[in-house]
Specification:
The structure is a single chain. This protein folds into 3 domains: about 70 residues; about 180 residues, Rossmann fold; about 80 residues, Orthogonal Bundle (Helicase, Ruva Protein, domain 3). About 55% of the residues lie in helices and about 10% in strands. The longest helix has 22 residues. The radius of gyration is 25 Å and the shape is globular. It has a 6-stranded mixed sheet, with helices on both faces. The protein is of the alpha/beta class. The chain is built from 15 helices and 6 strands.
């Protein structure tokens, strides 16, 4: 019976990998399928009357495969994003300075401790990930970026152990490298969101996360381990988890000044008509996210480069695209609307009134 169940799981994982070849979890699906295949071989060996010694040799391979799979869930890096590259978001920057940067620089000034959990919430494409990475770069911290959906994947299993391993690995990095660690969990609602129905495994994962969060707050007062969670759906989070994030920071749409700065940053390598006023572009893009503005600038680049290729002049290495005009931007904006609705913004503001904590 066990062999049939493993074989069915293997077939499902392989089918998923084939159906969605570009999906970022495919490597994990394949690794898990290999681990299951090793287990099937071991069980078949036992059924065939072979020695249990063979099974004992196979088991460590399965364990190592599972460890490798966990390592694929977490990206360890030293970010190169500078604080100045995070345009706008002054209120959020100040909150992170108070919670992370100042305590790292002078922990002796915080006898009552400091916040270890920070929740960044708001529309997609407004810089939550970049803000977290810049905070890590500012204190030379190891940045452990985690996809919550991957941790909770029912195909991967062992989600409860993955959460424990995540925090254990972070503590090991701090002890070995003597540097702070920021655990960044994207799509936090996938891990800690409320659900109408939960299976036992999901409940255990949430309890494990609560245990780990309580651990860094109570036992590790001098341990510079921080958890930054990001979500586009803060209303999906359970209150038990919300309160573990002492700082809850709204990451809003960029204001007019921030939009001007974004257009200046993204158009810097492009050739613009000198008559273009960035303030005018900012006016046209009220309600757009930072990601929207980047896409608009990229579309303008593609427009003039495509013209160069279609004119047949691109083969001449000295040929350059024409200047981008205001008319080009207006044409692009006619077919590119803001990715965030007014209703969604109203929902964020309503949630902020109840739960924001700077």
């Amino acid at each position: 019976m066990a062999i049939q169940m493993y074989q069915k799981a293997i077939q499902t994982l392989i089918t998923l990998a084939k159906l969605y070849p570009d999906y970022n979890l495919n490597r994990l699906y394949i690794e898990r399928a290999k681990a299951y295949q090793e287990r099937v071989k071991a069980l078949q060996a036992l059924e065939d009357g072979r020695s249990e010694a063979e099974d004992s040799r196979t088991a460590p391979k399965v364990v190592e495969s599972l460890k490798a799979t966990f390592s694929d869930l977490v990206l360890h890096e030293k970010p190169k994003v500078t604080w100045d590259e995070v345009i706008g978001l002054d209120q959020a920057k100040q909150a992170i300075k108070e919670s992370i940067i100042y305590p790292v620089q002078r922990p002796d000034l915080f006898p009552l401790g400091w916040p270890r959990g920070i929740l960044l919430y708001g529309p997609p494409g407004c810089g939550k990930t970049m803000l977290a990475a810049a905070a890590a770069a500012e204190i030379n911290a190891t940045f452990m970026s985690v996809d919550a959906a991957s941790i909770m994947s029912k195909w991967l299993g062992e989600a409860e152990k993955n959460v424990a391993r995540l925090f254990s690995t972070a503590r090991s990095v701090i002890e070995k490298e003597n540097t702070p660690v920021i655990i960044f969990i994207d799509e936090l609602d996938s891990l800690l969101g409320t659900r109408n129905q939960e299976v036992g495994g999901e409940v255990r994962v949430r309890n494990q996360f609560l245990k780990e969060m309580d651990g860094i707050a109570d036992k590790g007062r001098n341990l510079h381990l921080y958890v930054i969670g990001a979500t586009n759906k803060p209303w999906s989070l359970d209150w038990a988890f919300i309160r573990r994030f002492q700082k809850r920071i709204y990451i809003p749409l960029p204001d007019a000044a921030a939009r001007v700065s974004m257009f200046r940053y993204y158009t810097a390598p492009l050739k613009l008509d000198p008559s273009i006023k960035l303030e005018e572009l900012a006016k046209y893009t009220e309600g757009y996210t930072g990601s929207d503005i980047r896409d608009i600038c990229q579309a303008a680049q593609l427009k003039v480069v495509t013209e160069l290729f279609e004119s047949g002049k691109a083969s001449d290495k000295s040929a350059q695209p024409r200047e981008i005009t205001l008319a080009d931007f207006k044409e692009i904006l006619r077919s590119r609307k803001a990715s965030v609705s007014k209703e969604m913004i109203a929902a964020y503001l309503s949630w902020s009134e109840k739960f924001q904590a700077l």
